[in-house]
Amino acid sequence: MAVKVGINGFGRIGRIVFRNAHTFSSIEHDDVEIVAVNDPFIETHYAAYMLKYDSTHGQFKGDISVSDNGLTVNGKTVHFYQERDPANIPWGKHGVNYVVESTGVFTTTEKASAHLKGGAKKVIISAPSADAPMFVMGVNEKTYTKDINVLSNASCTTNCLAPLAKVINDNFGLAEGLMTTIHSYTATQKTVDGPSSKDWRGGRTAAQNIIPSSTGAAKAVGKVIPSLNGKLTGMSMRVPTANVSVVDLTCKTEKPVTYDQIKQTIKAASEGELKGILGYSEDALVSTDLNGDPRSSIFDASAGIALNSNFVKLISWYDNEWGYSRRVLDLICKFLSIPPFLHPWRGSALCRAKEGVKKSEMKGDAHANTSVCTTAYISKVDASN
After folding, report:
1. Could you report the per-residue pLDDT of 166-218, keeping only the tens digit for each?
2. Which of 156, 333, 351, 373 is the catalytic position?
3. 186 among the known binding-site residues?
């Protein structure tokens, strides 16, 4: 039986989480089902339109219609509410186990806990939180305990930086570092120059400017990797692109190392314990090449440089919408102790023709996304392997 999930806030992340869940529920994964959505500022017909059409990620691949109860997506009802107070959303009525809190408003433990009053069991905040425990898949998700009811998926930038920093720190020691994220504009920015009393630069038009800004993403790495606390800080440069961002990590290593050794180590991690989270590429990539990439961080091996054996600049791309939204769902899978969407044994869209087949029955390299196999989907019965 699928676990039932609700979404509060149907903005960029809320809709992309929905799209990710739909894609994998209908193709490769039947364990997660979005059954209810709440957004006080979007009526149902408009929600259907916004879900169907997306300027960045294209048209929704599925059937969407408006019903008496909300939306009907591929024949399944998604109940739609417009409550301003999270405590009034009847999650329990629809058997919702987990709520994705994606409004950007209820980001503290106290505020997000209001969803528990409506019947939810767990709340995942799709933003950094001042006090809720933060988890980054591939980095510290193993520290999650069942008594934690409200948690944060950190930020998209922390999800990109932390896996990279972990590999460097685990293998060479990360003495200190400065991060800059060259980040696509977001909904909080202005289409034309306008008032922004707390951030004057942030009030300038997003489509015409490179805008220096602050970010807590680098410092947040110290919360998910305690040994790096106080060793990283950073800033953001908002640029006139709609999606896909890139992290520039300039760092000092404790052990002497060549850039080639760093590349080899990151490549090995991307094919091993961080497969599906950390990527590796030697291609001459530009930002649009990563649009829709589900990984948290894609290391650009040909873009980095080294000054000497202890001082390097590392470049890693990330789809700040799609990859981050995938990790939100992965955290839910972590709660359930089932294979997350990034699980290497899930196989690819080319390998999903038949359920209930174990790894041992697959042909070829089961860890490769394009593995040649006679079967496609790795059943839940194999989850413990």
Report:
1. 999 999 999 999 999 999 999 999 999 999 999 999 999 999 999 999 999 99
2. 156
3. yes
Please say if the pLDDT value at position 380 is more than 90. Answer: no
Q: What are phi and psi of 226, to 5 degrees?
A: -55, -30
Q: Record the tokens describing residue 320, joined without a space.
A: 């700040």
Which candidate, 142, 145, 148, 140, places its Cα nearest to that of 124? Answer: 148
Respond yes or no: is residue 156 known to be catalytic.
yes
Domains of the chain: 3-132 (3.40.50.720), 156-320 (3.30.360.10)
What phi and psi values does residue 71 have, to the nearest 5 degrees? Answer: -110, 150
Q: Is 31 annotated as a binding residue?
A: no
Q: How far apart are CA 333 and CA 31, in angstroms?
A: 8
Q: Tell me how far CA of residue 161 lies from CA of 87, 180, 273, in angstroms.
A: 34, 10, 16
User: Can you tell me whether residue 168 is helix, strand or coil?
Assistant: helix
Q: Where does the chain show beta strands of DSSP type E?
A: 3-8, 32-38, 64-67, 70-73, 76-81, 98-101, 122-125, 150-152, 174-184, 211-214, 232-239, 245-253, 278-281, 297-300, 305-308, 311-318
- 210 in a labelled binding site: no
Give me the amino acid identity at 130.
A
The structure's pTM equals: 0.87
DSSP letter string over 274-330? TTTTEEEE-S---GGGGTT--SSEEEETTT-EEEETTEEEEEEEE-TTHHHHHHHHH
Distance from C-alpha of 40 to C-alpha of 50, rounded to nearest angstrom:
15
Instruction: Confirm whether residue 295 is marked as ligand binding.
Output: no
